Amino acid sequence: MDGMAEPVAHPITVAIERRIDPSRTVEATSWMQAGTDLAAGFAGFLGSGWVRAGEGSDLWYMLYRFRDIPTLEAWEDSPQRSWWLDSGRAFASEVRVERRTGIEGWFDAPFATHVESRHPGHATPPVTGPVQQPIPAAPPRWKQAVTIWLGFFPTNLLASWLLGFVPGFAEWPLIARVLLSTVLLTPVMTYAVLPWVTRMLRPWLQREA
Q1: Which tens digit of pLDDT belongs to each residue from 154-169?
Q2: What string of DSSP letters covers 109-178?
Q3: DSSP string covering 64-101, please?
Q4: pTM above 0.85, yes or no
Q5: DSSP state, 4?
Q6: Cα angle value 200/203/208 (rounded, 5°)
Q7: From the centroid of its chain, how far is CA 58?
Q8: Angstrom distance (rounded) from CA 151 to CA 194
Q9: Domains in the chain: ranges and CATH
Q10: Which of 117, 130, 135, 194 is the most exposed place for a label (fewest CB within 10 A)?
């Protein structure tokens, strides 16, 4: 409808828990990497990674992030991903899937919030072994704000000091200085500083109040 604002697009982080045949971990490692390489070729791809729950565990966690829902669904509904999933069915079974939006995706522990199935008609494989304790949800907003500030302040301070050595930088127009600093600092904060700070502060972030 004319005059209505377009919905704001948010990056989408998808976390997938899978059970892997312990006797085929070498194949699974190559398979996971192949999935990451395939996803990286799609528009809107912002990053991916995977970890094992423990050295002796058969639980593996994979995360990938896309610019918005349309770019995410282009990957998830692609024939390339379908082929990749089929190639791993002999040793990998999907247990559950979670989607998270916005910056809170950095603060949520895996599977701390809403869990959805990509195939509602298929039964979820039974989970054997000890029952896992509930994982706390995202910390309160004030803790998130403190965490972001703790990462941003020293990063911005260091960047401002380093940019001071750029000849003539102090005479640049304010908008140009701010533009350059934000272009430099945004990827540093997103891919390096913020993940590291949240990892260091995880016990405090997950503590109640």
Answers
A1: 988 998 899 888 898 8
A2: PTTSS--B-S-TTSPPPPPPSSPPPPPP-PPPHHHHHHHHHHHHHHHHHHHHHHHTTSTTGGGS-HHHHH
A3: EEESSHHHHHHHHTSHHHHHHHHHTTTTEEEEEEEEEE
A4: no
A5: P
A6: 140
A7: 21
A8: 6
A9: 12-106 (3.30.70.100), 141-206 (no CATH)
A10: 130
